Amino acid sequence: MYLNLCFLYSVISKLLDPQSAAIVGASPKPGTVGYVLLENLATRFKGRAYPVNPKYDVVELWGRKIKFYKSLLEVEDDIDVAVIATPAPTVPKILEEAGQKGIKAAVVISSGFAEAGNVELENWVKAVAKQYGIRLLGPNCIGVYNAYTNFDTQFLPVERAGRPPPGPIALISQSGAVATAIMDWAARRRLGMGFVVNYGNKADVTEVELLEAFAEDERVKVITMYMEGLKYPGEAKRLLDTVRRIAPKKPIVVYKAGRGSTAAQRAVRSHTAAMAGTYEMYHGLFKQAGAIEASSVREMFDMAKALATQPTPRGPRVLVVTDSGGMGVQAVDALEALGLEVPEVPESIAKELKRELLPFAAVSNPIDVTGSATDEHYKIVLDMLLPTAFFDMALVVTLMQVPGLTKNLAEYIIGAKKYGKPIVAVNFGGSELVQKFEEALEDSGVPTYPTPERAAKALWALYRYSQVRRRL
Amino acid sequence: MYLNLCFLYSVISKLLDPQSAAIVGASPKPGTVGYVLLENLATRFKGRAYPVNPKYDVVELWGRKIKFYKSLLEVEDDIDVAVIATPAPTVPKILEEAGQKGIKAAVVISSGFAEAGNVELENWVKAVAKQYGIRLLGPNCIGVYNAYTNFDTQFLPVERAGRPPPGPIALISQSGAVATAIMDWAARRRLGMGFVVNYGNKADVTEVELLEAFAEDERVKVITMYMEGLKYPGEAKRLLDTVRRIAPKKPIVVYKAGRGSTAAQRAVRSHTAAMAGTYEMYHGLFKQAGAIEASSVREMFDMAKALATQPTPRGPRVLVVTDSGGMGVQAVDALEALGLEVPEVPESIAKELKRELLPFAAVSNPIDVTGSATDEHYKIVLDMLLPTAFFDMALVVTLMQVPGLTKNLAEYIIGAKKYGKPIVAVNFGGSELVQKFEEALEDSGVPTYPTPERAAKALWALYRYSQVRRRL
After folding, report:
1. Where is the CoA-binding domain (chains A, B) (predicted)?
2. Distance (Å, rounded) from C-alpha A140 to C-alpha A92?
3. A181, B428: Cβ pair inside 8 Å?
4. Which positions 406-435 of A are in contact with B (Cβ < 8 Å)?
5. Could you confirm whether domain B2-220 is CATH 3.40.50.720?
6. Bridge partners of residue B171, in order along the sequence
């Protein structure tokens, strides 16, 4: 059994990270799905790419000659994955050829299967895959984006849909369009996402297996999941067991869409033919298993960013440092609403702080260095308080609009990482200084957020994860 | 009494929208507060500016000769507002000169009053202002930003803290730094904010009077308020009465910071010496009076943007159109959680839609035109459903990453405004197409949001406002 599982995982990791790929349905005609796939794999993929299309022989593209194969069987080299983007009725035959060629993994992009009412065709495809021992992702999916090798079966051109840089976050998405939009958004924000997978109709490879594969991949530090609903009996139990096993080792952040009543159920059903189930059921399942639940796509990545870069806190006590009293108040509101603590600064330390900061600074928690603060004031507070046993993490508000702050402040905040406690920052505004400052922090592993509420939720996720680690 | 009130309001509107201003403490030295104020008012203000500083005579600045006056009394022309940025102890004497000169309004930027423990000095300033009938904003404030005339007493340079373009939103902020950060953020997003006022220690002019002034100004379509707490006995009652009177005519959106327990109270007290009060008290007050409450600064502007541009809906029924089933599901979740309705499409219309849209489109509500949609599919849905009596507003999700959509879609959505019902859009991503599309919509008065949750909250605010209008 163990060997068998290992074998399965290694095929799935090949599906996610192949050395070679065939593109069946590759096309030299710009504007087609087959062209985008060919461009992705022939010009950016770090592995070997084999275009398959009987209509073409050798075509000059991107300044070089591209050879098209008549069929998979014509390719002489080994192929890790067959990417299939031909009309639905042709897929069973192509899969059969893949099987004969000894290919063990396929991504079926094509639509026109169960989602369009063609359940029998989908069952036929499943049967062929099973017969040849092919693990199949899809059909009706955007497949895989691997930022490390640019194995990329997303069929929208880069100009329209950006691709994120490599990084510690993996996404498993039930919705193709949501995955595409997330990638485009992450690309703009330089959010590192090593892997994005959309499994479409889930004829074979399931989200549970993808979870397992990412659990094993050391480049993945946080797994995010966008889910609408499960499909088959027994899946909830398997998901529960898998999350429970993985979560203590690697954080899993889940956003479950389709929470509401009839209209939400109707929407889920018509979208992925999945049953949304009562939201309470999923909520209970995630909580019990140790997944961290987000209440929106954005929040999922706010949390993932912190989980991927910050150490696990030892407790719920947050130090708040701010140059805006108003932002400090908002931070405390948000932290307390989430059940985190904002304890007072012990009197002896407060006295010492009083000497070092401006006379009108507030030296209790939140510590308000005021709008007249300099970079050094933040350094003093962080160095004096973060190493003590009184605080488990820090939320640092830096409204850079005040006159005394410079980009050097980033170094001081990054420097405080040496105390081994989570630090998140809040920046708000739009000037170049704000943007540069944010980039400096993010590039050195200090996640930044535009509002105190979002930063607080990220700290909450870290604290929640510390409990998952402890409990399980 | 009526005449007296009118007189008061006209002085306050002069304070917010003067034709002429003196800058006491103006300085030719870059990097000082007096320099930024001088630069604001001498180079960008559309009215007349009179620098006052006995240390200087005529100085060449920005390629022209700037005359400095020795005192306010030396200026021969009439002055609407004295902007005072000299050390705190000098302020009473300067106010006295303003009074002798017949100036009726002053913005005192200087700090070092009650907020620093100098209560007597602040009382003295109040007494002088009262004696001469001067209405005084501050002290310890950033004062006024008027985007129409660039009357701008914000003392941070534009490079560090952006200024928003003119527009229908006014902000009354208890926190100076929060106001500054909001302006910088709004400037980047091109969010139109005609007026921003921070009242600092509130020695004289109060938030209630500012509310009254904005209620009267036709350029202001929505009033936003950032509050931490009230200060004096009887203020809650006055605020309640004022909001109740204004709200049915002009929407008021409030974000009250300082909601939590001891730590939040502590933070508010040390920040503005105000009592946070129980949050429940404020919540009850706002609800009763007809203010729309936001739960964060960002949400306040999400709502304000919709209230400033959209008609009042007749009911809670939302039409959801989407090209991503997943986003549709999220929208329904969010709408239903807020008590809005997502009714089914009547069968006869659904049949007709079925003929016009793609065969695998979902024609119930949410209507999923699918990732294969073209611009025209959105037009068909909006034209067929929005004019009917079945829907009161529309939430349109346009993930522009899908291949069939172009920037023309913006025109169709903007065109649907003719049905006189609120429309908000959801866009997510980062490519240039997404950004251009968003700008086109926003510039034509269709507010866009990056997540379905935020768009739903904006529709909720519109519905809530329709109830305020009806009820009061």
Report:
1. 15-113
2. 14
3. yes
4. 428-434
5. yes
6. B196, B224
Please give the backbone phi and psi of residue B326, each rounded to the nearest 5 degrees, phi first. -60, -45
CB B276 within 8 A of CB B234: no
**Tokens matching residue A59:** 């075509």
Strand partners, A51: A23
Judge whether A277 and A235 are in contact, CB under 8 Å. no
pLDDT in tens, chain A (472 residues): 344 444 455 889 899 999 999 999 999 999 899 999 999 999 999 999 999 999 999 999 999 999 999 999 999 999 999 999 999 999 999 999 999 999 999 999 999 999 888 999 999 999 999 999 999 999 999 999 999 999 999 999 888 899 999 999 999 999 998 999 999 999 988 899 999 999 999 999 999 999 999 999 999 999 999 998 887 778 888 999 999 999 999 999 999 987 766 676 666 666 665 555 677 788 888 999 999 999 999 999 999 999 999 999 999 999 999 999 889 999 999 999 999 999 999 999 999 999 999 988 999 999 999 988 999 999 999 999 999 999 999 999 999 988 889 999 999 999 999 999 999 999 988 788 899 999 999 999 999 999 999 999 999 999 999 999 987 5
Cβ neighbours for A163, distance < 8 A, ≥ 6 positions apart: A145, A147, A150, A152, A154, A183, A187
Query: What SS3 state is found at B348?
Result: helix
ipTM: 0.82
Name the residue type at position A77: D
Q: Which residues contact B197 (CB under 8 A, 6 or more apart)?
A: B16, B137, B143, B144, B145, B170, B171, B172, B173, B179, B210
**438-467 in chain A: CB under 8 A from chain B:** 450-451, 453
- Please indicate whether, in this complex, the C-beta atoms of B184 and A270 are within 8 angstroms of each other: no
A402·B433 Cβ contact <8 A: no
Q: Where are the domains of chain A?
A: 2-220, 312-471
Same fold, A2-220 and A312-471: yes
Burial class of residue B59 in the structure, from the number of CB atoms within 10 Å of its CB (0-12 exposed, 13-18 middle, 19+ buried):
middle
Q: What is the DSSP letter of A291?
A: P
Which DSSP state fits A431? S
- Could you tell me which residues come within 8 angstroms of residue B247 by beta carbon, excluding any fewer than 6 positions away? B289, B290, B291, B468, B472
Per DSSP bridges, beta strands A135-137 and A105-108 are parallel
Q: Give SS3 for B49.
A: strand
Q: Judge whether A393 and A422 are in contact, CB under 8 Å.
A: yes
Q: Does residue A463 contact residue A316 with C-beta atoms inside 8 Å?
A: yes
The single-letter code of the amino acid at B53 is: N
One-letter amino acid of B233: P
The CATH code of domain A312-471 reads 3.40.50.261
Chain B closest CA to A245's CA: distance in Å?
28
Give me the residue label for tokens 């007709």: B352
H-run or E-run covering A437: helix A432-443
Cα separation, A418 vs A400, in Å, equals 23
H or E, element range at B3 = helix B2-16
State the angle between helix axes of A2-16 and A207-216 in degrees (0 to 180), rounded to the nearest 10.
90
- As given in the structure block, the two tokens for residue A220 are 């993945």
User: Measured between alpha carbons, how far is A72 from A369 in angstroms, rounded to an integer?
Assistant: 67
- Whether the CA torsion B257, B260, B262, B263 is positive or negative: it is negative
**Interface membership of A382 toward B (CB under 8 Å):** no
Burial label for A138, CB within 10 Å (0-12, 13-18, 19+), is buried
Tell me if B318 sits within 8 A of B342, measured CB to CB: yes
Q: Which of B296, B366, B403 sits opposite A156 (nearest CB)?
A: B403
Token duo for residue B110: 């200087």
Q: For residues B292 and B300, give the distance between their C-alpha atoms in angstroms, rounded to a whole number.
A: 9
Per-residue DSSP letter, B150: T
Helix and strand totals (H; E) in chain B: 16, 19
